Amino acid sequence: MHFKFKKFTIQQERSAMKVGTDGVLLGAWTPVNHNPYNILDIGTGTGLIALMLAQRSQAEQIDALEIDDDAYEEATNNFENSPWNDRLFCYHAALDEFVEESTDDFSDSEPLQQYDLIVSNPPFYSEDYKTDSEQRDLARFNDAMPFHELIEAADVLLSDKVFSL
């Protein structure tokens, strides 16, 4: 099963979360008028939002994070098969691991990697109700990425480049 856009295709057979209205709208409505040099997509899933931002912007570097094995593989393949494959890279890591590695590598001679734009279609459920699919629960429930961790990571990783909406 795939979802075809005008300039790219999303393969989504293995990912728990398929292309949906919320992801398409976030990819279409995210402001890029401040011409970000680099973008970070946290919890990329199939890579939809990162791909849409690659199409809509001239960002030189678009990094994505994905914790789920299958979604990571699918996002990587979707990136490689896109017209912007030289600008897209997917890390197979949780947000807290990514932030820790980014700050551990920070030194006076090498500045911390920061991003001019950070996007996320985060897990939004916090209730105890779970489904029979561990993969889908990982994508939908904020156990693996609590909202406060997302805010703290943005505080560390977001550059000072100012833009107006």
Describe this structure in words.
The protein is of the alpha/beta class and 165 residues long. Helix content is 35%, strand content 16%. The strands form two sheets. The protein has a four-stranded parallel beta sheet, covered by helices on one side. A hairpin with a 4-residue loop joins β1 (2-4) and β2. The chain is globular, with a radius of gyration of 15 Å. The N and C termini lie far apart (36 Å). 33% of the residues are buried.
Compact description:
With 165 residues, the chain is an alpha/beta fold. It contains 6 helices and 6 strands.
Question: Which features characterize this protein?
Answer:
165 residues, four-stranded parallel sheet, 16% strand, alpha/beta, 35% helix
Q: Report how far apart the termini are.
A: 36 Å
Overall outline: globular
Largest sheet: 4 strands, parallel
Count of helices? 6
- Rg from Cα: 15 Å
Low-confidence runs (pLDDT<50, min 5 residues)? none
User: What percentage of amino acids are in beta strands?
Assistant: 15-25%
Query: SSE string, helix = H, strand = E?
Result: EEHEHEHEHEHH
Helix content: 25-40%
Instruction: Please identify the structural class as seen in this structure.
Output: alpha/beta
The main sheet orders its strands as 5-4-3-6
